[in-house]
Each structure stands twice: as structure tokens, then as C-alpha cells.
Amino acid sequence: MGPGGMGGGPGGMGGRLSDRNRPKATLKDVSMKRILLLFRSYWGQLAVIIGLALLAAVIGLIPPLVMKEIIDKAIPQGNMKLLAVMAVLMIVLPLLSGVLGVWQNHLNTKVTQGVIRDLGQSLFHNLQRQSMAFFTDARSGEIVQRITGDVQSVQSVVTSLVVSSITQIVIVLTTVGILFALDWKLAIIALLILPLFMMPVKKVSKMRKALRLETQKVRSDISSQLSESFGISGALLTRIFGRETQQEREFTAMNQKVMDLELRLNLVGRWFGMATSTLGPLGTAIIYLYGGYSVINGSMSLGAIVAFAAYLGRLYMPVGTLLNLQVEVATALGVFQRIFEYQDMVPDVMDREDARPLGPVAGRVAYKQVSFAYKPGQYALRDITFEAQPGEMVALVGPSGAGKSTLIGMIARLYDPTSGVVEVDGVDVRDVKLASLRAQIAYVTQESFLFHATIADNLRFAREDATREEMEEACRQAYIHDYIVSLPEGYDTMVGERGHRLSGGERQRIAIARAILKRPRILILDEATSHLDSESESYVQSALEELMRGRTTLVIAHRLSTVLAADHILVIEAGSVAERGTHSELLAQEGLYARLYSTQFKKAAEVEGG
Ligand SMILES: Nc1ncnc2c1ncn2[C@@H]1O[C@H](COP(=O)(O)OP(=O)(O)OP(=O)(O)O)[C@@H](O)[C@H]1O
């Protein structure tokens, strides 16, 4: 169903750009068929539900016939025995349908909850396959809203799809059958008024669909605003700039908008509901008018007309429900569209069909004429070529926004080149399985992120089966073990979201220990620019040296010691390699590097030196 064929082609010129460039599900794709396909694993249970509904419908057909017997036979004939039998039936039948109802309801809930669970599962699965391009584009609140709010909001529709449609259709069909059996002329009259009520369905559906889509969009905005303004960084920024009142105003406005939209949605629905509820009285009145006339002129029995009128309820009520259901489903199409959009997203970085696992590598890294554009035509990198032999360190330096982060992200396929090739041990990284490639790479970012979990769990994020000894060894190498054991709960200390209970330097060293634990062959490092005090700085520096030892390292360098230790330095400017060489060679060129050195590295060195 999803658009295929992206992300796998060799070379891949211009094919894999941002998420915005990918085709998405449109309302046209959101067909009833696709919604019904959500039930595909539940056909067995649906069959039982249909069986139960049929049984209940047949039982429901009997009471009016009982009434007919009482009026036309038992009373006129004075047959007390028949009267008693009919009275017993009047109690037993509802009891029986009640029991069947409970059973059916349980099955309905089981199927509904199953469908909702599967939907959430498939969204989560597809989101985990997405490349970083998707996450840099999307707001996290929006993602949360779609995977929880949207999925929840279609629950009632999914339920009524199963419960109502099956049950009501069965009731309508059996009732129409018996109406024709009782009196075909009256039956035709009873059916004639139905089209009258079908007319507004389309218009109401369209209005409600648009309103629902808008409501869910505003809900996403609210969700995004909440996660931004109540996340640690957002909360800090809000307080520092004193923007609490303004944020509250924004929230109030969106909150009010949701309320207004829900009110309108409800009103559109209510008018329609009211219209369909007049179906019953109108039909019944017409039938009594015509049927009463037939009884008067003797062409119909009194019992027959009473039974007929009783059946009308079983016709008009379910038809009304079905019409309302159709409107409900159409309303929910807007939400399904949002859900299916996420289901259909094709990751722009994924395994090729013929991708093979990458065995243990020596760690030779090569970029060959690599260019990359985040948006078509806007190149962030152009024609980058360099090689790093196993164990070598390549330092990248250059002005802010030059493309350094983009460049180092390509080796772990956070982004794929728009043209050119990135190789590890002579193999194009797009030819191997992503998991096997990433298993050999560690990436230490500037801002070290820790999950809200214990220190041990955060370390195990690198390798699930790491033993306590291995963790401790990694932490010793990262110069953080002594600090961790000094905490009252040691390795079991919970670190808050973003590890906020730890200082910047401690967090970094835990991140470094995590990378050591992974035992990568290739290391990607974005040195922190934030100046730690000289003690932390030297700890972090020593930890990094341990980490880099014997590993091929690509590092965005901010420290003099790093550029001095580098085997090659690439000076990146506006997406291209402006200069390359060792520190002394580059200084001698008296170009960009020499300028950066005097403005950036020398100063950093002074700070490093204390
Ligand atoms: N997700 C994105 N979508 C569009 N453009 C982006 C995206 N990420 C980065 N860019 C742009 O690509 C260019 C290179 O960015 P990059 O982050 O690689 O630079 P950098 O050299 O690492 O900068 P810094 O040293 O400031 O981190 C910049 O112009 C940036 O605005």
C-alpha cells in the first residue's frame, strides 16, 4: 500500500531527501477497505460474532409473533394454555438474548482492543524504522498524539464497526424478510421512506470529517506545545525569559479551540441523529394509517397490524443506527488518514533487500565524492573525499554550520549521501545490514543524553548482556567509576530525564563509558564545546583518550590536544574540504586553519591549561 522503491537504489541521486518529500497517504487512500483490513487477523472471532448476532436477531423476531398469537388466537379462542405458553416465551426469549448479548459484547471488546493494539504496534514499529531526517522534521508531541490520542480516538468507531454494523445489518435483513412475509404491500410502504433519510448522510459526513481532522490537528499542536514547554530545556527557557503567561495564553487559545470544534462536531452530529430518530414515528404513522384502513375494510387482521408495527421498530432503529455509524466512520476517516500516514511512511534509510551482515571490520573508513542535500538543490556537503586507516584519527574543524555534523553522521547512515559513497573496509555502507554496521560504531554526541533509568540501565543501552564487571571496567576507563560508587545507590542510582542530577562532565563520562562498553571499531565523536572546569575537563579528556585508543575515530574537534593528536585534519568550509593536512602543515599554509587556530584552538588551549 505504501509507496515503495525508495532508499534502496544504488547511487540514489536525489531520491532520499527529507520526510517532507515523500508521498503520503491522502484521504483517497483511506478507503473503507483499508479500515476493514485492520480486522484481518480476527476473521474467526468475527464469524462467531456474526453467528451470535444472527441468533439474537432470530430470537428478537419472535416476540411480535407471540403478540400476534395472543391477540388473534389465544384471546378470541379463550385458549388459556396457549396464553400461558406465550407468556412464558415472553420471559425466556429476552433472557436468552441477554445471555447471548453478554457473550457477543465480550468478543466485540476483544476484537476492538486487538485492532487498537495492532494499530499502535504497527505505528511504533514504523516510527522506529525512520531515519533521523524524520525526527528532525517532526515535533515529538505530534508523534505522541498520533500514536496514542489518534489511535484511541478511533476506538469507538472500531467498536461500532464490529458491534453495530454486524448486529444491525442482520436485524434489518431478517426484519425486512419477515415484513414481506407478513404483508408485501405494507413492507414496500415501510421501505419507501428510507431514502429520505439517506440524503443528508453525505453532507453531514463531509462536514464532520473536516471538523474531526481539524480537531486532531489542534490536539497535536497542544501535545507538541506541552512536551516542549514542560520538557526540561523548554521549562528552563520559559522561566528565564519569563514567558509563563504568554505560554499559558497560547495554551488557553488552543484548548478553547478544541472545545469549540468539539461543540460544533457534536451539534452537526446531534441534528443528524435527531433527524434519523424521526424515522420511526413517521414510518409507524404511515403504516397505522394504511394498515388501520386495511383492518377496517377487513383485508388484514388486528394482530397482524400490531405485529407489523412492532417490527417497524426493528427496522427503523437499526437503519438509523447504521446511518449514524456511516457518519461516524466518515468522521473518523480524517483520523485514520493521520494514522495511515505514519503507517505508510517509507524510511529514507533502510536495509536493501540484498543487504548482507557486515562482519567484524578493521575500521578503514573512506568517503568518496560524497555530496548531500537536506533539501533538493541545497547542498550541505559537496564532493567530500578522504580516507582514515584503521586506528587513525581524523579531526574535522571548521566554522559553525559548515557541515561537520552532517558529514560524521553519514558513516552510521543517519543520512545517506545524495551522491557518492561512504565505505567501511571497502564496502559501501548501504550494502550491509544497518544493525550490523551500527553495532561496530559508537557515537558520542556533544549533549550526552541519558534515559530516565538507573546508571546501570543506561550503560546497558550499549550492550544488553554487559555484566556488572564489564560495566565497572568501562566506567573505570571513563574515569567515572569512583564517582558512581560514591553515590548512595551506586550503579542503581536513577538519573533523571537527560541525566539532570549529574553535572555535564559526569554525564559525558557516563556516555563515554557507554561507548567503551559497546567496543566499537569506529568512533564518532562530537567534542563538547561547553567549557567544563579544568578538573572535569581533564577527566573527560583522559576518558576520551581511552575510548579512542586503537579505534578509527572521526572527531569534530574543539580542543587543541585533539587536533594535535589527529593523523589528518580536514578543514570544512561551506560543505567542502577547504584544507587538509596535519596541524603543522596547515599552520604553514596560513589559511582558514591558521585563522581558526588563533581564534579558537589557542583560546581553548588556554582554558584547558587552566
Ligand atoms: N535537518 C536538517 N534539515 C535541513 N538543513 C539542515 C538540517 N540539519 C542541518 N542543516 C543545515 O546543514 C548545514 C550543515 O549543518 P551541520 O550541522 O552539519 O553543520 P556543523 O558544521 O556541524 O555546525 P556546528 O559546528 O555549528 O554544529 C547547515 O547550514 C544547517 O543549517
TrEMBL record:
Keywords: ATP-binding, Cell membrane, Membrane, Nucleotide-binding, Transmembrane, Transmembrane helix, Transport. It comes from the Bacteria. Residues 1-20 are annotated as: Disordered. One of its GO terms (molecular function) is ATP hydrolysis activity. It is found in: Cell membrane. It is a multi-pass membrane protein. The chain crosses the membrane at residues 42-62, 82-103, 169-199, 267-290, 296-316. Pfam families: ABC_membrane, ABC_tran. Residues 1-15 have a biased composition (Gly residues). Residues 47-331 form the ABC transmembrane type-1 domain. One of its GO terms (cellular component) is plasma membrane. Residues 365-599 form the ABC transporter domain. This is ABC transporter ATP-binding protein. It comes from Paenibacillus whitsoniae.
